Amino acid sequence: MTRVFSGIQPTGIPHLGNYLGAIRNWVALQDDHECIFCLVDLHAITVWQNPTELREQTRQQAAVLLASGIDPVKHILFNQSAVSAHTRLGWIFNCVARLGWLNRMTQFKDKAGKDRENHSAGLYVYPNLMAADILAYKATRVPVGDDQRQHIELANDIAKKFNHDYEVEFFPEIEAFVPPQAARVMSLRDGAKKMSKSDASAQSRIDMTDDADTIALKIRRAKTDPEPLPSSPEGLAERPEARNLVGLYAALADQTPEQVLQQHGGEGFGPFKKALTDVLVARIEPIAQETARLLGDVPHIDAILRDGGQRAATIADPIVTEAERLVGFLK
Ligand code: AQP
Description:
By secondary structure, this protein is mainly α. The protein has two domains: 3-177 and 298-327, Rossmann fold; 202-292, Orthogonal Bundle (Tyrosyl-Transfer RNA Synthetase), CATH 1.10.240.10. It has 13 helices and five strands. The strands form two sheets. A three-stranded parallel β-sheet has the order 1-2-3. The radius of gyration is 21 Å and the shape is globular. The protein starts with a strand and ends with a helix. The mean pLDDT is 96. It catalyses: tRNA(Trp) + L-tryptophan + ATP = L-tryptophyl-tRNA(Trp) + AMP + diphosphate + H(+).
């Protein structure tokens, strides 16, 4: 059975972009894949995190994933720092990856902005650790949003160079699995920016724990333009905010943008935003309620993560020990 690995940073409450770009595809893959899902707390601290909040957010992420349908018994859910294989292989990959490769990573450029010198070295080598996360399990399929495509290509370059440098066929090729719809959900305040946990404006995103009133308010305030909706997707070309809202509706209603516009073309944003709010509330409210219920039993969440960590280590430890042996470490 194909092994799937994917991760999410416990840097805040998961939002609609995380859900549509990643989490709901994770849930679907569980039917016919062996899945390993990871709360990547090592990645989270590439930007400083308040320690108490990091612990809380890790549990909250776990609760949202469980509430969304992740099965921690048939599959594995754990937090990254619990399995030392990630950092052991991450260091080897720091020595395999070339600086030129990392210099091309657009996510680092976006996150560091102009103030590059003041960011952590961890943020810069983040893609090497991400490659280690996946390859420590020899996972071959990685469901991610569109923003992570470049990191998966880099992981494949690292795997190939390791195999070449040590004259082995040890690490497999990885395939990014990007959803056909809503692979890049944009901010509700700016159609040119992706929806992000770290955006200073809470109005820019729908959190997976928002209640119906909060969702309705955020959608009412979402930036749009004065024109009515067009009757086909071509009419959205120069209208990023309208395109984002139509894309959200389509992803949530399991329709194509064409179908959405056949139904809603010609409408003003007032009625369309109401219809969008309805599909959002129908999807998010049950997840938010189940998340709140799960968070009432923190020891249960901790036990799930502990068990997942132990099972993950059973897979990763022998693979990484073999990689260390290939490199020439005394074992
Ligand atoms: N806006 C998005 N649209 C579609 N997919 C998205 N993902 C993230 N944002 C969007 C996908 O969610 C998964 C987990 O992402 P992450 O938490 O590891 O990191 P991120 O991409 O850096 O997400 P954020 O929300 O922007 O976090 P911060 O603000 O902390 O950096 C990934 O598969 C990602 O593609």
